[in-house]
Amino acid sequence: LGKLIRAAVPALIVALLVAVLAARNIARPLGRLTAAVGEVAAGHYDGEIPAQKRGDEIGRIACALDALRRDLRQSRDDLQSGASTRAEMQSAQASVVEALQTALSRLAEGDLGSTIAQGFPEDYERLRNDFNRATDRLQQAMIDVSQSAEAINHDVDHIAQASEELGQRTERQAATVEETAAALDQLTASVSEAAKNAAEVDSIVGKAREDAQASGEVVRETIEAIAVIEASFQRISGNIKVIDDIAFQTNLLALNAGVEAARAGDAGLGFAVVASEFRMLAQRCSEAAREINTQITASSDHVQDGVRLVGRTGGALKEIIDSIRTIADRVTAIADSAREQSTGLSELNSAVSELDMTTQKNAAMFEQTSAASSDLRSAAQGLRQNVGRFTLGSRAESWTAGDTATEKAASRHAASA
């Protein structure tokens, strides 16, 4: 679109310059020539014909008119050289002057299709041909300018329409990008908060894993301590068995001592009392040993249950530690992923912000382009109005008809599309 505008502006400037130059270099000299021809027609042959130094057809017409003026002046000076010949020459010259004056008047009024159809005397035929050729070239030049102005106006209409549509799409795109940027801001904030929470959960899970590992170590030490207690109970049980055996032997010895004291009669009464006490003491020791053994056995069973429970606790803690380790690994992965997503969303948010700024700038540029298209359209219409002041003849009408048919065909094609 910008390239099309840049290409159209120089063409419009050239067309405007051509129109201005045409108005300046055609209308003014033709006006002066018309006035000079009027002077010659009035019988004033002493004045100079203007525009003789121009290198175009107007200059050639001026030179021919000056030659005619000199001839008329010579004829005036040669009035004494034959009335009949002089009358014929004056009649021919007057006819030439009248035809030129009429054609130049129409040309000065803007009728570029004006030509001299009637033939001139042989001496002035070149003047008629030069005049007709000059008007023909001027007519073609103005037709070219008119065609350029029409093409520029047509292109400007397309540019303006495209600029308007593109501006509307850019405005909608800017609104969409702005909404996307706002949504990305919220999403980035949410993901950043999620990443922060995931990092905190990762820290908590890590602490829980350390605590679980410490608890596992405590369970292991507890199992070892219970194993030591169990071994101590087994040693105590062995010692109690020894004590029970000693009590049994003591009881047997006391029983034998009582038998021997009974054999001794009265002399062995004291010894029998001692033997009885030893037997009672041995029995109490044996009963105490059995009771202690029973309690140790029960305690050993309790210790076995404790060892089993502690072992199960250790297994459960090991499973918990493994689960916590798995959870910690996954939470770490989630935290890393959330951090990467937060970073990616931040970069995406920056890119969308830049896109938003670029879209806003494009919208501003399209507004400027629309204003430039409007100015260009006004200038093209002004050029068409300036060209419309000239009557371009049959060739311009045929071109206008062809251009109108082309526009109608383009309109039908656009409607069918």
Structure summary:
With 417 residues, the protein is an all-alpha fold. The chain contains six helices and no strands. Helix 4 runs parallel beside helix 6.
Structure description:
It is a single chain. With 417 residues, this protein is mainly alpha-helical. The protein has a domain at 182-358: Orthogonal Bundle (Helix Hairpins). The protein is built from 6 helices and no strands. Helix 1 (2-41) packs antiparallel against helix 4 (125-264) and helix 1 (2-41) packs parallel to helix 5. The radius of gyration is 65 Å and the shape is rod-shaped. Residues 398-417 have low confidence and may be disordered.
End-to-end gap: 22 Å
Helix content: over 70%
CATH level-3 fold name of the domain at 182-358: Helix Hairpins
Question: What amount of the residues lies in strands?
Answer: under 5%
Number of helical runs? 6
Poorly predicted regions: 398-417
Helix/strand order: HHHHHH
Helix vs. strand class: mainly alpha
Largest sheet: none
Overall morphology: rod-shaped
Domain Methyl-accepting transducer: 148-377
Keywords: Chemotaxis, Transducer
InterPro entries: HAMP_dom, MCP_chemotaxis, MCPsignal_dom
Protein name: Methyl-accepting chemotaxis protein
